[in-house]
């Protein structure tokens, strides 16, 4: 799933706050015409000694406000969110919302959202109300479970979480809507139970392309009405829910996976007393367990306060060690390059190398702390917005051993290339599951619609391929009805075809049972390898106009289409201070054959179709090995 993540290296306005005593006055100076609004908040809490802690909280918010922004609300879309809020919660809701947004976007010249500095726009009433409500919620938490004041300031007090437009009264509304949470927690219900109850009831769903229709971070009210958006939108909503209840909550994120072609991810972090829970917006998954062994280069936690340790990501706190084993590394400056800004990069199919963290510049090396293992990195200098390598790419394995990929061009492997992307990882085994679930499925023929006394034409076993397969049918009988039946498993097919003895594809009336509602009406019959039909206890087949003898059956499991396809054009590269081509080939089979330098890092591009590609190497048995993936 694609998500907009908090931009790890965003250009934020930074305070020169090496001297803490001047940070408040500098912030007030930056407020300009809005200074009086902020000053009045400080004044209101300075009069009564009992408000001393609230004064300290107000000072914290104002001192750290530079660099926090709100998108100016885009007008013209209000009716879209109002309309979908009244639509029933069913399988058609997402498609309906897409159509509504598409229609409105064609009539509205939205443009790009304008970022407004919070320090110049936030008013005293909203800020004071937010502080009072935050303290009320914090004080409702039993003392033994209550957050420290420092954690309160960063993870409960803030008036919002990201760049979303400010929603008036959202804290009050959320606290009222979810007031039952305190009762559940006081009764001894676990934090996970409460969080999963909220996410399950809310039923938030991802629309990856939503920014093409509505190019703005969704406000809390818009998420409440639609229950759609990107991961960041959903996380923002749930973070605000728990903060309104006085419970520590934040957005955790990775700027880029070590085993994804182009994406990072963000998710929800919640803490109550000694209990912690990290989960996606759909809930019901413990990500700290799920991500164990995953290829995670860095995990950062969004804070409100400026993190002085991270000059280029001032509102992100490094929490990588909470999720995966890490290592402290030092990489020699092997190449003669400028080295003003040390960065550590991972592979990205669009940018080739994407910086995920900054490091320390030593005399002859760059050093980086707390970097995730099971990741392929490249150390580089970041000059003029360009990544310039200082050494060969290297992999840190689970034992924290480092292996550099310096190609030996005097020795070559005879390499068989089967795919351009890894099959699975600890967090994502879906392709493996799709293949395995097809086993025990059967192709059947019958002369009755209910398939009583059906004849088994072929039963699947030991199946493990994403390519199109064709099987011969031995039965000479003719059948009015044919089908694939999943034997009560959840299975998906991207292609299904039956042929007679002349090699002609047979057609008839489609029959299907328990076929889930996808955007494709007949995904197994549209010649698109990425569309599919399927579901649980699923069957799919044909009712012929007259009985037919079946000579063969072709089928393909739901897949990512990242295997080698006959007739498509490919090009293989290896890395030597940059990507060097090993030549282009048009696939004549489902395998490609190349001579590759030993110990080289490889990248296969498909020039015909597709966007998902990742780097790999050839092992001692001349097999592809995917870095950061399961092999």
TrEMBL record:
Judging by the UniProt lineage, the source's domain of life is Bacteria
Q: What is this protein called?
A: Transglutaminase domain-containing protein
């Amino acid at each position: 799933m694609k998500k907009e993540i908090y931009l790890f290296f965003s250009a934020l306005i930074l305070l020169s706050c090496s001297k803490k005593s001047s940070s408040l006055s500098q912030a007030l100076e930056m407020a300009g015409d809005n200074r009086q609004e902020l000053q009045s908040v400080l004044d209101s809490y300075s009069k009564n000694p009992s408000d001393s802690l609230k004064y300290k909280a107000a000072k914290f918010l104002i001192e750290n406000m530079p660099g926090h922004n709100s998108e100016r609300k885009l007008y013209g879309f209000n009716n879209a969110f109002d309309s979908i809020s009244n639509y029933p919660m069913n399988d058609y809701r997402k498609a309906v919302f897409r159509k509504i947004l598409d229609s409105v976007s064609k009539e509205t010249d939205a443009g790009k959202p304008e970022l407004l500095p919070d320090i110049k726009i936030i008013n005293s009433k909203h800020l004071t109300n937010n502080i009072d409500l935050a303290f009320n919620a914090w004080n409702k938490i039993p003392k033994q479970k209550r957050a420290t004041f420092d954690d309160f300031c960063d993870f409960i007090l803030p008036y919002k979480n990201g760049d979303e437009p400010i929603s008036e009264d959202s804290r009050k509304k959320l606290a009222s809507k979810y007031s039952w949470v305190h009762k559940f927690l006081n009764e001894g219900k676990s934090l996970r139970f409460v969080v999963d109850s909220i996410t399950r009831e809310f039923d938030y769903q991802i629309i990856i392309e939503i920014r093409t229709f509505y190019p703005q971070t969704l406000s809390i009210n818009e998420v409440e009405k639609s229950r759609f958006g990107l991961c960041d939108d959903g996380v923002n909503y749930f973070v605000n829910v728990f903060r309104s209840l006085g419970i520590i909550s934040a957005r955790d994120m990775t700027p880029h996976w070590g085993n994804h072609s182009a994406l990072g991810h963000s998710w929800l972090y919640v803490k109550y007393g000694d209990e912690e829970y990290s989960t996606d917006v759909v809930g019901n998954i413990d990500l700290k367990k799920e991500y164990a062994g995953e290829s995670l280069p860095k995990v950062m936690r969004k804070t409100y306060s400026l993190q002085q340790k991270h000059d280029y990501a001032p509102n992100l706190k490094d929490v990588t060690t909470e999720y995966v084993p890490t290592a402290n590394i030092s990489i020699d400056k092997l190449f003669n390059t400028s080295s003003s800004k040390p960065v550590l990069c991972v592979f990205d199919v669009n940018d080739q190398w994407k910086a995920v963290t900054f490091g320390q510049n030593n005399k002859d090396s760059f050093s980086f702390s707390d970097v995730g293992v099971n990741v392929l990195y490249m150390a580089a200098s970041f000059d003029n917005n360009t990544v310039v390598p200082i050494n060969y790419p290297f992999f840190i394995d689970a034992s924290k051993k480092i292996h550099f990929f310096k190609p030996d061009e005097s020795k070559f492997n005879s390499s068989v290339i089967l795919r351009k992307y890894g099959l699975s990882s600890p967090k994502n085994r879906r392709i493996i599951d799709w293949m395995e679930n097809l086993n025990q499925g059967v192709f059947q023929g019958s002369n009755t619609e209910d398939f009583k006394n059906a004849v088994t034409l072929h039963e699947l076993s030991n199946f493990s391929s994403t390519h199109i397969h064709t099987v011969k049918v031995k039965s000479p009988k003719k059948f009015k009805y044919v089908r694939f039946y999943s034997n009560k498993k959840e299975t998906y097919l991207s292609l299904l075809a039956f042929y007679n003895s002349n090699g002609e594809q047979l057609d008839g009336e489609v029959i299907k049972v328990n076929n889930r509602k996808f955007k494709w009406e007949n995904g197994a019959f549209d010649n698109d390898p990425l569309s599919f039909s399927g579901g649980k206890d699923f069957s799919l087949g044909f009712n012929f106009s007259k009985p037919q003898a079946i000579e063969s059956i072709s089928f393909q499991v739901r897949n990512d289409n990242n295997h080698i396809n006959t007739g498509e054009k490919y090009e293989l590269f290896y890395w030597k201070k940059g990507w060097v081509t090993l030549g282009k080939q048009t696939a004549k089979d489902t395998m490609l054959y190349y001579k590759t330098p030993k110990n080289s890092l490889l990248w296969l591009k498909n020039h015909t179709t597709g966007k998902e590609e990742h780097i790999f190497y050839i092992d001692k048995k001349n097999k592809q090995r995917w870095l950061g993936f399961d092999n």
